[in-house]
Amino acid sequence: MLARKSIIPEEFGLPGLASRMPRKPVFRDRVNKARFIAKNGSCNLAHKNIREQGRFLQDVFTTLVDLKWRFTLVIFTTTFVSSWLLFAMSWWLVAFAHGDLDPLRQNGTHCVTDVKSFTSAFLFSIEVQVTIGFGGRMITEQCPTAITVLILQNIVGLIINAVMLGCIFMKTAQSNRRAETLIFSRHAVIAVRNNRLCFMIRIGDLRKSMIIGATVRLQVVRKTTTPEGEVIPIHQIDVQTESAVASNSLFLLAPLIICHVIDKNSPLYDLSAMELQCSDLEVIVILEGVVETTGITTQARTSYVSEEIQWGHRFVPIVTEEEGVYSVDYSKFGNTVRVATPRCSARELDEKPSILIQTLQKSELSHQNSLRKRNSMRRNNSMRKGAGSSGSLRRNNSGLAKVQFFAPTDGGQNLNGVT
Site: Role in the control of polyamine-mediated channel gating and in the blocking by intracellular magnesium. Where (predicted)? Predict the structure, then answer.
């Protein structure tokens, strides 16, 4: 059976019309700009085309410490096994040169007793370097060369042990391990504090052992162009904080809010709320201090790009007093609340102080209106509940049936009816 041909021409059908309709442009997501410092503190920087690779070998110890754990363990194992094999070959050559490999030779004339093959020489090399004496193989006074090899292997073994074990110890006790418990707020905020626009972040320490002499440094990294036309891709600008002005260090016992007043010397002085979202800047936060338990200097880093700075927000309090003890609720560490904040820049706020007054007045009026609405809603709800209860009582009273009371008489059955 043949298919029935459509009456509408194909060019006017749905596929034909769809093919001829102009397509809307597809907007792709904007590629995120590479940040200089990641949120976990690692530097997002790749070193390429380094010609003088030999400089890394001049500082072997630091190179070994900076390597990843898998490479360090491979080098650790390879170094010890290679030294054992090298001195095993030396002991075998000493035994071969002295004729100890001859099975007819007496034990009293051997350089090393019970060294009859390369396997036994390898075992004796391990015993000498690791200072394990099983009692079966030992050096005699018949061969001064063997004594020289013994001294040489002991010195080389001590050097290898010192370097390798020191490298493992430094990798396990690195300062960045302590920085894992130093936390920063997920977002930074800009709000009014003491009638000034302030850039604020929150830092905290999860351990009870304190960071001695803790200091916080802020830097703004942005791409700038000099009047001469020179482009500086990573221009670092130091940002002053209130803690640095008041004292030299922080007492990081509980989470603190680090505040930077946006004044004339601040790189954020000319940025409004809208301009901040469109700007290409990154605020780097560096926390340094000495670990109380180990005495090692540690450093924790993070950064905030423009998308991670919330304008018109403030951190909620997380420290409370409970039964004579100060308690810190870390579940609210990064929580913020919206507050009244002018959307203009700090420069405009300094030039027109009335903007701040108007913003605060509007916020106060809106707060009062919300309170009035809330109170009126409560009154209405209470009145509705009261009206509902009185109506139910009326309905209950109206629903009562008429009751007749009968009294007995002499000649009749029904005399009076009372309702």
Answer: 161
